[in-house]
Write a structure and sequence with these properties.
The complex is a heterodimer of chains A (314) and B (340). Chain A is mainly α and 314 residues long. Chain A has two domains: 19-77, no CATH class; 83-311, MetI-like (MetI-like fold, Orthogonal Bundle). Chain A is 70% helix and 2% strand. Chain A has helices at residues 7-12, 19-55, 59-64, 79-86, 92-122, 128-137, 143-156, 176-199, 203-211, 216-227, 229-245, 248-253, 263-272, 281-298, 300-311; strands at residues 158-160, 163-166. In chain A, strand 1 and strand 2 (163-166) form a beta hairpin. In chain A, helix 5 (92-122) runs parallel beside helix 8, helix 6 packs across helix 8 (176-199) and helix 8 (176-199) packs antiparallel against helix 11. The two termini of chain A are 32 Å apart. Chain B has 340 residues and is mostly helical. Chain B has helices at 2-43, 49-80, 98-105, 107-137, 145-152, 159-170, 182-189, 204-230, 234-242, 247-258, 260-275, 279-284, 294-303, 308-339. In chain B, 74% of the residues lie in helices and 0% in strands. Chain B folds into two domains: 2-80, no CATH class; 105-339, Orthogonal Bundle (MetI-like fold), CATH 1.10.3720.10. In chain B, helix 1 (2-43) crosses helix 2 (49-80), helix 8 (204-230) runs antiparallel to helix 11 and helix 11 (260-275) runs antiparallel to helix 14. The chains are: A mainly alpha (314), B mainly alpha (340). At the A-B interface, helix 2, helix 3, helix 5, helix 6 and helix 7 of A face helix 1, helix 2, helix 4, helix 5 and helix 6 of B.
Chain lengths: 314, 340
């Protein structure tokens, strides 16, 4: 290893035969790499762009010709959006339902998980490490594994050997069981992300507060919670996207009437009932993805931070 | 006409308002309860203060995790050993491992398992390949955020939304008509005069559905691997360059070994997501035309075709397949903590 070599010395080093070729190639390679990156980016965007264009075309145009024809024979109309938003069985109510599902299913886990994260990080007791890794390892339980038992719990309560241990929460058939289900499933990741952030807060801060006589709950409320906002934001976006985009839980606990369905379930039945609503698919599809896209693009920085904390750092 | 329109709009509006009011009520109620509990517990002083604080902070999470994950997992394992057919069936009995034998001998389920394994092998490999490629290409680029955002964008799109988007790529029309599917249009321009109906052509349709998943996951891989590449100290890259390594060689001998841990974590994370893939297959073909995967068949067994125990056995198989991957991630994590 030549640790003392300076860049100047590098230039003076004798170059091998194809030096000229190499230099030229090097100059080109970075712009070539950029071009390749942009090319991949464009390929990745074309499918979404096609949906976007199609959503602004009339139903006849969208049904008979490809979206690229819109640039040759421009004809745009908002009739699709009008119909999707106002027509019966449209998307207006499902969009509201999606919000109604997503907002509580994002806020409630934030509180529950940050409380648990604080307890596991700053109120260490025998077994607290075990509980932390135990909860993290529970990611192993696939959603599908919990669906049937959870549904039985919502209907009949929790029974062990025929004895009712916990009565049914009485929320069967309401939106509340979707909140509860998402809250349960979010716990492993939420506690993991928020705990790791809270654990890195300076201990001098906590000690000073304790010396001043603040109780644990008080420290949590007035120091930990405000300082943990970056981690909470990361998890919040993550959870918002996850719940908004979820189909399985909505499909299992959300019922089949459009009155109860979120947009994903509604879209799935639109795609499924081939022919009937196929012409409205593009505006409906774009409405479905536009809210998560706005959230994502405006808060991308926090989202990336959450991803990195979740899978790379400990 | 106008009055009907207004009436419809106002009824929609009324329903929307009542739904959203319920949300405000629920969230407000939840926070109010928390505040009350905090207030009451805050009055406690002395020896009991700490244990009470622990119970209040940790209790709800542990309760939810037990009720939502631990007990259901045990119940499902139990169900998989019984002969339950429909939900709520009372008289069921233990039948040993028959549901598992069935899963591995039934020809349809065998096909499903093989297909799931194909998903597991191809999707993570391709997603990581594309993600790594873009991360390397934009490494020293000026406006790197533009192509990065373009590749990352599908991460925010639901699997259902993605399926709709891609239905405009895979759409089929008879060759004599104007095409509405991008893929058909492109291959016809390239000279293939009679392209197939993509989504019902076996086994091509499975691979076309995988592309949707790769499209979604590549951005995730790119972001994580890009950060790991940035994390390699400049001195290492610099001295490797001075030693004559560049391009592929630098990549193979220096960068890849340096990010190996991250690479494996990304592969396992994408694998876990892929293993649970349900939405894409469900939305596009509902598992017909030989596209079924484990997660979709399990859903159908449990909620559509009344084979709860067989579905539960598939869920347990899924669980056993995920376990080593998560175990690996936890072990990596613990090791990193010890170093720190």
């Amino acid at each position: 290893m030549t640790t003392t070599t300076t860049p100047a010395a590098k230039v003076q080093q004798p170059l091998k035969g194809q030096a000229a070729v190499k230099a030229v190639r090097k100059a080109f390679s970075s712009s070539l790499a950029s071009a390749a990156a942009v090319f991949i980016g464009i390929i990745w965007t074309i499918p979404t762009f096609g949906l976007f264009v199609n959503s602004f075309r009339s139903r006849e145009a969208a049904a008979t010709t490809g979206w690229w024809e819109a640039f040759v024979h421009p004809s745009f109309s908002l009739s699709g959006y009008n119909e999707v938003l106002t027509g019966g069985g449209g998307l207006a109510i499902p969009l509201v339902n999606s919000l109604a599902i997503t907002i509580p299913a994002t806020i409630i886990p934030i509180f529950v998980a940050s409380m648990a994260g604080y307890a596991l990080a700053w109120m260490r007791f025998r077994g607290s490490d075990f509980i932390f890794f135990g909860i993290f390892a529970l990611q192993v339980v696939p959603l599908q594994m919990a669906l049937v038992p959870l549904q039985q719990y919502y209907v009949h309560g929790l029974q062990i050997f025929g004895v009712t241990v916990l009565p049914s929460p009485g929320i069967n058939g309401t939106i509340a069981q979707i909140w509860l289900t998402h809250t349960m499933f979010s716990m492993p990741l939420a506690i993991f992300l928020i705990h790791n952030f809270i654990a890195q807060l300076p201990s001098s801060l906590m000690e000073a507060a304790r010396v001043d006589g603040a109780s644990h709950l008080r420290i949590f409320r007035s120091i930990v919670l405000p300082l943990s906002m970056p981690a909470i934001a990361s998890f919040g976006i993550f959870q918002f996207l996850w719940v908004w985009n979820d189909l399985l839980v909505a499909k299992t606990f959300g019922g089949t009437s459009p009155e109860m369905q979120p947009v994903t379930a509604r879209m799935q039945s639109l795609v499924g009932s081939y022919g009937a609503h196929l012409d409205l698919l593009a505006p409906a599809g774009f409405l479905t993805i536009v809210i998560p896209l706005i959230v994502f693009l405006s808060l991308q920085r926090y989202f990336v931070r959450g991803l990195l904390a979740g899978s790379v750092k400990g | 006409m106008t009055t009907a329109y207004v009436a419809l709009a106002s009824s929609t509006l009324g329903q929307a308002a009542s739904t959203l009011f319920g949300v405000v009520e629920a969230v407000g109620g939840f926070i109010a309860i928390l505040l009350i509990v905090f207030f009451v517990a805050g009055r406690v002083t002395g020896r009991l203060q700490r244990p009470i604080a622990i119970v209040i902070c940790l209790g709800p999470a542990l309760f939810l995790v037990t009720l939502g994950l631990i007990i259901p997992a045990i119940t499902t394992i139990n169900n998989s050993l019984r002969n339950q057919q429909f939900l709520g069936q009372l008289k069921t009995k233990y039948i040993g491992f028959k549901n598992y034998t069935y899963a591995f001998t039934d020809p349809y389920t065998q096909q499903t398992i093989i297909r799931t394994v194909l998903w597991l092998l191809i999707v993570p490999a391709m997603a990581v390949f594309v993600g790594l490629l873009v991360a390397l290409l934009v490494d020293r680029m000026r406006y790197a955020s533009i192509p990065k955002t373009m590749v990352f964008l599908p991460t925010a799109i639901s699997f259902v939304g993605a399926s709709v988007i891609w239905s405009y790529v895979y759409n089929y029309k008879a060759p004599s008509l104007p095409q509405t599917g991008l893929l058909s249009q492109v291959v016809m321009k390239l000279g293939w005069s009679n392209p197939p109906n993509w989504l019902i052509t076996v086994p091509l349709n499975t691979f076309l559905e995988m592309i949707i998943m790769i499209w979604i996951q590549a951005g995730f891989a790119m972001v994580i691997l890009g950060a790991a590449l940035k994390g390699i100290p400049d001195e290492i890259i610099e001295s490797a360059r001075l030693d004559g390594a560049s391009g592929i060689k630098l990549f193979r001998t220096v960068q890849i070994p340096m990010i190996r841990t991250t690479l494996v974590v990304v592969v396992t994370t994408v694998m876990i997501t892929t293993l649970k893939v349900f939405d894409i297959v469900f939305t596009i073909n509902n598992g017909n035309f030989s596209t079924d995967v484990l997660a979709r068949q399990m859903y159908a067994d449990m909620f559509v075709t009344n084979q709860v125990s067989r579905g539960s056995a598939l869920a347990v198989i899924l669980f056993l397949a995920v376990t080593p991957l998560i175990y690996y991630n936890v072990r990596t994590l613990r090791r990193e903590r010890e170093i720190r």
